[in-house]
Amino acid sequence: MAYTIEVDGLTKAFGDTRVLDGIDLHVEAGEVLALLGPNGAGKTTTVRILATLLAPDGGTARVAGHDVTRDANAVRAAISLTAQEAAVDLVLTGAENLRMMARLRGVKQTVADELLERFDLVDAKDRRVEKYSGGMKRRLDLAMSLVVKPQVLFLDEPTTGLDPRSRRAVWEAVQTLADEGVTVLLTTQYLEEADRLAQRIAVIDGGRVIEEGTAQELKARLASEVLEIHFADKPSVRVPVNEPGDVRRALDEHLDAERIELHQPSLDDVFLAVTR
Ligand SMILES: Nc1ncnc2c1ncn2[C@@H]1O[C@H](COP(=O)(O)OP(=O)(O)O)[C@@H](O)[C@H]1O
Ligand SMILES: [Mg+2]
């Protein structure tokens, strides 16, 4: 079957530093994939290559059926990107930013008004963006990338630095797009965000995809259960439990344990285990 995003063995080095070391990704039409990884894992580099902003050294990447190197223009026509750094003009108002984008993309000005409404920016539309909160800027940024509804949307850390309320607003916007059938690749450092928005999660670390699957599959792959050991005078620790002897071994190692609990593994456990 043809994937909407198909990445095989993608490599990229900056100078002597190999930042991408053979990335493989396959995203179906209408799917939301979260690229989850710590700072410096190679998330932005991957997104920049897929959005044709950066040339890869090796491997292949196809987006919406087009090769990002050979058919960059066709890829650009099919995608939209909300970058990690805001791409809005700070001295313009929200409405002016959107109307300018509508003019550039050759769509009706009413699209700008619809987007202001949809992203809860009507009250702020005539204020300069430099006066916006972080959450408002992010919502405007997202609105800007949707002036023309893309086939594929790349979101690079869409909620990093946002307060919980703004984060929820962005999540709802992404969810709506996904419901409309837009294929989304989002990067995040937040497990909660990956779990909430994405059908599948690819964990990236050291320039490679080291785990991939649904949140459930990732949890199941880690361990059947996790033992949480509490102490009187230091932070608790979590230990994966795969076979009966594991509990005894963990307790033998932590004779000063005060209390223990058995849990289903959380996505945090998965993340810590695979990126350690
Ligand atoms: N243009 C560049 N020149 C040199 N090094 C870079 C450049 N862009 C990114 N890097 C390095 O590549 C690594 C991965 O960066 P990046 O893709 O931004 O990671 P992430 O988005 O996951 O935090 C980091 O070590 C970063 O410093
Ligand atoms: Mg980044």
What would you note in describing this structure?
By secondary structure, the protein is an alpha/beta fold. It has two domains: 5-213, 3-Layer(aba) Sandwich (Rossmann fold), CATH 3.40.50; 222-275. The protein is 35% helix and 29% strand. The strands form three sheets. The chain has a six-stranded mixed β-sheet with strand order 6-7-8-3-9-10, sandwiched between helices. Helix 3 (94-105) crosses helix 4, helix 5 packs parallel to helix 6 (164-179) and helix 8 (215-222) crosses helix 10. It is globular. The mean pLDDT is 91. Bound molecules: adenosine-5'-diphosphate (ADP) and magnesium ion. Magnesium ion binds at residues 43-44, 84, 156-157.
Descriptive key words:
single chain, globular, 35% helix, 6-stranded mixed sheet, 2 domains, 10 helices, 13 strands, 276 residues, binds magnesium ion, Rossmann fold, alpha/beta, 29% strand, 4-stranded antiparallel sheet, binds adenosine-5'-diphosphate
N-to-C order of helices and strands: EEEHEEHEHHHEHEHEEHEEHEH
Strand residue content? 25-35%
Number of domains: 2
Largest sheet: 6 strands, mixed
Q: Give, in spatial order, the strands making up the sheet with the most strands.
A: 6-7-8-3-9-10
User: Helical percent range?
Assistant: 25-40%
Assign the structural class, choosing from mainly alpha, mainly beta, alpha/beta, alpha+beta, or little secondary structure: alpha/beta
β-strand number: 13
CATH topology-level fold name of the largest domain:
Rossmann fold
Which hetero compounds are present in the coordinates? Answer: adenosine-5'-diphosphate, magnesium ion
CATH architecture type of the largest domain: 3-Layer(aba) Sandwich
Q: Report low-confidence residues grouped into runs of 5 or more.
A: none
Top-tier CATH class of the largest domain: Alpha Beta
Radius of gyration: 21 Å
What general form does the structure show? globular
